[in-house]
Specification:
444 residues; alpha/beta; five-stranded mixed β-barrel; five-stranded antiparallel sheet; 11 helices
């Protein structure tokens, strides 16, 4: 059996404004269907694969739990990192979970990749399992179809039964170097997927990244179960270096590392151009989604996330236009891989849109601000079935709540609602005096 390890802690910004730190792209329904994370889970929901172990961050565990429930995958285990420490620490923490089962085959998968041919993906994983059982560390490469500068590369040659020998790991190249790599024919894109036995990868960490072992082992040993997941110890995990698995281990293993070519319609969806390449083209080679319309446009992507915002493109060529309810991106298609610069600029301006949405997700549901003024704020709050908000008491503001759908308990001692609650505070205004003494606290 293959034990999938799904890494779902990234906070990617390359698909801004749809993907932001507070709700990154792995949880977004980019094609109107399930999210990339959910599709990754479903990809390994087949005989020969165990229920996955998911590693995610403190800000996302409740999103992961809800999305797992939506695809009936609650049997999955969940490890929560209290702070982000890149992929090496996440892989090591997951491997330590199976330390007493040293021959278990682990398959490490990013949660934000797109795969068109799922059957081909599974066939390759089954073939690779035989090699991993022999103590090899397996990585997976994609045959390049253009001179991409956004991927790492693997130089491969020879091999046996589909397992290619790796002679060089290369960082993301410049345009000229990428062109030379493409023309040589002996390079693959590094897909960031790995397979190995538990004992094999633990020995590799001991040999090549020993500074990581002690803090991660302590974080696992001192961690605690909480709300259906296992939270690593923060003090110990914070002492761990922040390294990618490639840098910490793969680039230093001289022998025992091989690659399998993965031909399955793979994309890391690392830019709006790659999203367009995965989409359904109209007669002008445009991709439109949501409430958007393309008129006399060519080779463009138009996307509106808000059904109340109509996005219209007229006479556009090679343009990306993406609209949400609080941000709009308009870019030349050739610059779509540089959206990170937009996020950096917004951060420097102190703009909220750099990292958060108007809708804020919480373990109990979500809320969004409908109107905000000097002495008032109106929010719409959605409470999940059976969930409840924290009990709080405010001394310098008055709140008015209106339940517009479902039913809600009036105080913390009552049974939480059993139906989905949609609660909208009518207004929230600061007051010059505290409320009467002895008044009951309330949920907010």
């Amino acid at each position: 059996m293959i034990q999938p390890i799904i890494l779902a802690g990234g906070s990617g910004t390359r698909l801004w404004p749809v993907s932001r730190k507070s709700y990154p792209k792995q949880f977004v329904e980019l094609d109107g269907d399930n999210s990339l994370f959910q599709k990754t889970v479903e990809r390994v929901a087949e005989p020969g694969f165990s229920a996955p172990l998911i590693v995610t961050g403190e800000d996302y565990w409740f999103i992961v739990q809800q999305q797992l429930a939506d695809v009936d995958a609650e049997k999955s285990e969940l490890i929560v990192e209290p702070v982000g420490r890149n992929t090496a620490a996440a892989v090591l923490a997951a491997a330590l979970r199976y330390k007493e089962e040293p021959e278990t085959i682990l398959l490490v998968l990013p949660s934000d990749h797109a795969i068109e041919d799922v059957s081909a993906f599974r066939r390759t994983m089954v073939r690779a399992e035989k090699t991993a059982k022999r103590g090899k560390i397996v990585t997976f490469g994609i045959k390049p179809d253009h001179a991409a500068t956004g991927f790492g590369y693997l130089r491969v040659a020879g091999g046996y039964q589909g397992a290619l020998l790796i002679s060089t790991f290369a960082e993301k190249p410049d345009a000229q170097t990428a062109k030379v790599m493409l023309e040589s024919g002996d390079w693959l894109w590094n897909a960031g997927m790995f397979m190995f036995r538990v004992d094999t990868v633990l020995k590799a960490f001991e040999a090549h990244a020993p500074e990581m072992s002690a803090p991660v082992e302590a974080a696992v040993a001192l961690g605690q179960k909480d709300l259906g997941f296992y939270r690593l110890d923060q003090n110990a995990f914070s002492r761990c270096p922040s390294l990618s698995f490639d840098h910490a281990v793969m680039e230093h293993v001289e022998k025992g590392v091989v690659a399998f070519e993965l031909d399955c319609g793979w994309s890391d969806l690392g830019s709006w151009k790659s999203v367009k390449d995965q989409g359904q083209l109209d007669e002008g080679a445009n991709v439109t989604s949501g409430n958007s319309t393309a008129i006399d446009c060519r080779d463009s992507l138009l996307r509106s996330e808000n059904p109340d915002i109509k996005l219209v493109g007229l006479g556009l060529k090679d343009i990306v236009a993406v609209a949400t309810d609080d941000g709009i991106l308009v870019a030349d298609m050739s610059h779509s891989a540089e959206v990170g610069k937009v996020v950096d600029a917004l951060r420097n301006e102190g703009s909220d849109q750099a990292e958060v949405f108007r809708r804020c997700h919480r373990p109990w549901g979500h809320y969004e601000t409908l109107s905000l003024g000097p002495r008032f704020q109106v929010k719409r709050i959605m409470v999940l079935p059976g969930a409840k908000l924290s009990l709080q008491s405010h001394m310098h503001r008055a709140e008015h709540w209106v339940v517009v759908s479902g039913s809600a308990a009036r105080d913390a001692l009552q049974t939480p609602p059993q139906a989905s609650d949609l609660v909208r505070p009518e207004n929230t205004a600061p007051t010059s005096a505290p409320p009467p003494k002895g008044g009951p606290p309330h949920r907010c």
